[in-house]
Amino acid sequence: MKDVTQRAVEDYIRYWETLNVRSVRLVEKLAASGISYTDPFHDVRGEDAFEAVLRRYLEGVRLRNIKVINYGFSNDGRTVFLRWEAVIGNEDPITLSGMSEVVYDHNALVVGHYNFWDTGSQIMAGAPILKHGFNWLRRHF
């Protein structure tokens, strides 16, 4: 199997860092049609479902900016780990920090994108009704 190329990774990072409503469909050039995508709120398969999640992030939670801070290749030659920050919301924007495991096929197309981030401390703890409960938990654990 051919190892993932630097260019394929850089193209995928550029896709995320410039993502907007008009560019969502460009993922078809970078991902396999059966792409698997997960994050703390979604578990979908296929380009259409993946694109629907991205549109929901852009239009619903107002994903404003993604910046990949760092990335590294795994030993298997087809998996890349991305460290990123994303800004969501308009009124009181929240910055999320997370990691993604991105798996490529033998054609250097993304077949899996698995996001990991802490919804508790980064999103839920900021919700007014939940904030006091999270603060109490932090003090006691």
Write a structural description.
With 141 residues, the protein is an alpha+beta fold. It has helices at residues 6-17, 47-59, 119-122, 128-140, and strands at 31-39, 42-45, 63-73, 79-88, 94-104, 110-117. It has a 6-stranded mixed sheet with strand order 2-1-6-5-4-3, with helices on one face. A hairpin with a 5-residue loop joins strand 4 (79-88) and strand 5. The N and C termini lie far apart (47 Å).
Fill in the keyword field for this structure.
single chain, 141 residues, alpha+beta, Nuclear Transport Factor 2, Chain: A, six-stranded mixed beta sheet, 4 helices, 30% helix
Number of helices, where a helix is a run of at least 4 consecutive DSSP H or I residues: 4
Any low-confidence stretches, pLDDT <50, length ≥5?
none
CATH topology: Nuclear Transport Factor 2, Chain: A
CATH architecture: Roll
SS content category: alpha+beta
What share of residues is helical?
A: 25-40%
| Global shape | globular
Please tally the β strands and state the result. Answer: 6
Give the total of domains. Answer: 1
CATH domain class: Alpha Beta
Q: What is the string of helix and strand elements?
A: HEEHEEEEHH
Distance between the termini: 47 Å
Main sheet: which strands, in order across? Answer: 2-1-6-5-4-3
